[in-house]
Amino acid sequence: xxxxxxxxxxxxxxxxxxxRVGHADDSNAGTGxxxxxxxxxxxxxxxxxxxxxxxxxxxxxxxxxxxGRAHAIVLSGxxxxxxxxxxxxxxxxxxxxxxxxxxxxxxxxxxxxxxxxHDLANPGDKDWGLEPPYRRLGLASLDAAxxxxxxxxxxxxxxxxxxxxxxxxxxxSIDLGDGLIVAALVVANPVGxxxxxxxxxxxxxxxxxxxxxxxxxxxxxxxxxxxxxxxxRLASLGRLQAGAATTIGAVATTADLSTAxxxxxxxxxxxxxxxxxRPAHMPFDGDTLFxxxxxxxxxxxxxxxxxxxxxxxxxxxxCVARAIARGVYEALKQA
Length: 335
What we know:
The protein is an alpha+beta fold. Strands 1, 2, 3, 4, 5, 8, 9, 10 and 11 form a nine-stranded mixed beta sheet that branches. It has a two-stranded antiparallel ribbon with strand order 6-7. It has helices at residues 85-95, 134-143, 231-236, 259-276, 305-334; strands at 19-26, 31-48, 55-56, 69-76, 114-116, 161-162, 165-166, 168-175, 181-189, 246-255, 288-297.
């Protein structure tokens, strides 16, 4: 039997060389920002499956449009206010000279897509008036970007909830050999549950590697058929409204994918969200996944390329499921 693929050295999205992640928190407001920084202008795609998304620059990544690449991806709390975090990242990158240079002497124009989650009803002082903290937090998260970063209640996961329990930032990677690495970074704030009906086993348990989110396994008598969501319970959370809950994130690979292929990987990666959260992709959710490809690993352009692309998408879905469970698991340990 062939050996199973293993996580990368860090078991983080930064196992894909050329990526760094930075967090910035506002403990008073109970919110934060996470920035995924690219060392180059990487091909990118995005797929939005939730019925109430909060996004920025997603059409810039459409395969039929001009750019289809990104300098950074911003994930933020704060609902619509959190979209301002990308303003800080754009300004910080432009000052560094990172971005499109359309005319000599004009400012660099960074491409920074973003997605937000709704944490406004969670603990923290959101009475910020005309000065939401997100632009400042975006700039701080850019300055904090490193290869190693915290999981759980950090950055955009600072105010996240997963149903009735704490949500947070998670990440996971898989090394498929010959330089091909696939990884995910996710912020879990779903209204759906990450736990099976027993209330203790993660839905994602079949995909766990080396006890990365506690090693829990369901009793064989526990059914995988979850109860119909209790509308009264959801209403009590204040999350039965568009955009009130979401899981946002990004997957990345070292493969030399086109923008259209990045889109396909993002679409497949959503399967991992559905494996780890039940129910998912509801009208209230803003579920959004970006996809990045660094191009370091050549897939070739023979008849087998679609098969290799499918393997990358499948691995991305597994990484998303693992990352969601890791984020919640780490957040619960910190609670």
